[in-house]
Structure formats: C-alpha cells, structure tokens
Amino acid sequence: MDTANYRLKSKYTDQMVMGLEKIWGDDLRGTVEAYYKMYRDVPIPLSMASDDPNDFSSVFINRGTGYARGVEFFLQKKVKRNLWGTASYSYSVSRAEDPRSPGLEYDWDFDYRHVLTLIAGYRRDFREAGWFRTMRRSSWYKLAGWFPVLPADETELSLKWRYLGGRPYTPETYHPEWRRWTLDPCQPVNSARMRPYDRFDLHLQRRWYFGRLDLLAYFDLQNVFNSKNEWMYLYDDDGTREVVHQFSRMLVGGVVVEF
Questions:
Q1: Of 106, 90, 115, 96, which Cα lies nearest the Cα of 17?
Q2: Which of 25, 70, 173, 182 has the fewest Cβ atoms surrounding its Cβ within 10 A?
Q3: Which element (helix H / strand E) includes 96?
Q4: 229 with 189: CB under 8 angstroms?
Q5: For residue range 216-250, what is the model confidence (pLDDT) as tens digits?
Q6: Which of 11, 67, 12, 65 is nearest to 36 (CA)?
Q7: CB of 119 within 8 A of CB of 157?
C-alpha cells in the first residue's frame, strides 16, 4: 500500500462547452466546438513545489491548478459511392500555475497547441465485375491473389496523416562539478518545446468471401516518410544529450479468418 499518497483527492474540473453542428445530405456532417476548462486539486509531485534541484520525492500533493481553452473543428464523410473520410483540427492553450511561484503560469505537459488529423479511404466491391469473377476462377489468381497489387472481393485503401505541435518540456542544466544534469530552481517549467510530430500512414485491406467463411488480409505501412519524431531525451554523465525517437518506418501485415 502507498501510505504516502493514499489521502490524495481526485482532481476537479469545471468546464463550459458551446458547439454547432451542420449536416449536408445523408453522408456529410460537420461540427465546431469551443470550450473552457478550469482544473484544481490536480495531484503534482511534492518536488515541483520545492526549489531544491536534488529533491526527487515520490510524494504527491493536491496543489496543481490550471486551465485549458480552445476550439475544435470536425468534418465526417460517411461511406457513399466508395469514398469516406474524416478531418479534424483543434487549437488549444493549456496552462498551469507554477507551485513555486504563485501567479506565474507555464505551458502544461499536454499543451500541443495545434492538432490536425486527416483520414481518407476508398472501398470497392469487385464481386459484380465480370472481369474480376473470371480472374478469381483462374489458377494463377488462386496462387498469387494474396499479392497486394491484385484486387480481392472487397478492397479498401486508406491513408492517415497526423500533425501535433511540439510537446513542452523543461530543459535540464549540466553541472560538470557534479557530473550531473539537474532542473535548476531558476529554470522556468516547460520553457522549451520538442519538434512537431508528423506521421503519414497507409493501410490496405482486402477481403475474400467463401460462403460462411471470410478471409481478410491487411498491410499497414506506418510512418511512410520516416519522420524523426522525438519521444524523450537521455542525459549522459559526460554532458551530452541524446534524442530518443519514436519508431521509424514500419510494415505490418496479417491475416484474419472470420466465421
């Protein structure tokens, strides 16, 4: 049992949300929302309220306060005539009060400012096409039909692009006399930002129908352009800092049998 933190209270939030929705036809919907949230009693490490850079206490206290405000746009295109997709964008500001200096604010850890996500897909059913039925019965298709460039009974290709503004972080200071990195008392919290996050994915999904059994095969190419998205920093005793990136380009595939 964690005897040091068992008395912590849950954080409390007051929020106001206002939004509008518009529907165009039976396959297109758009919304816009504006919000304002106020946080109090947020659990924070006791060390955040201390000016001692060597304070690494694991005790938490309910002294965190802050707010978040922003606007969100969302557009959805449902599947009709093979095409579908969504587009969303949000701009937000999230700030917290520095417990070391009441009245002084800093960017909260999740203050990305800009968040943009675009998803689009194309789905096609080839079962009614005469040329496909002829090709599906051929012996060469039975052997090579799994190859990604060949269509299946139902084929779907989709893409996803996601962009986030840089995540805030607090730079550490290297002290050669100690051979250590520390968060100095004079260092403002979250005064720097990582590089923006940028990732583009492609997804190919194909399905074959065999009576009561369906066979689904998929290929997922993640981070197509091999963006170097930062995850964290490693601080070495020799005074150098190493950037740890998220995963690079990756190809994932699989087969699912449905009954």
A1: 90
A2: 25
A3: strand 83-97
A4: no
A5: 999 999 999 999 999 999 999 888 999 999 989 99
A6: 67
A7: no
Report whether 161 contacts 123 (CB < 8 A): no
Which pLDDT tens digit goes with each residue over 81-106? 789 999 999 999 999 998 888 788 99
The Cα-based distances of 200 to 44, 84, 187 in angstroms read 35, 18, 35
Query: CB count, 10 Å around CB of 22?
Result: 10
| Nearest alpha carbon to residue 80 among 31, 118, 28 | 28
3-state secondary structure of 224: coil
55 phi, psi to nearest 5 deg: -85, 110
Mind listing the pLDDT tens digit for each residue in 158-193?
Answer: 999 999 999 999 888 888 888 888 887 778 889 999
Strand 197-210 and strand 213-222: the pairing is antiparallel
- What is the DSSP secondary structure assignment for residue 158, as one 8-state letter? E
- Which residues have C-beta within 8 Å of that of residue 170, sequence separation ≥ 6? 183, 187, 188, 189, 190, 191, 192
Q: What is the pLDDT of residue 48?
A: 77
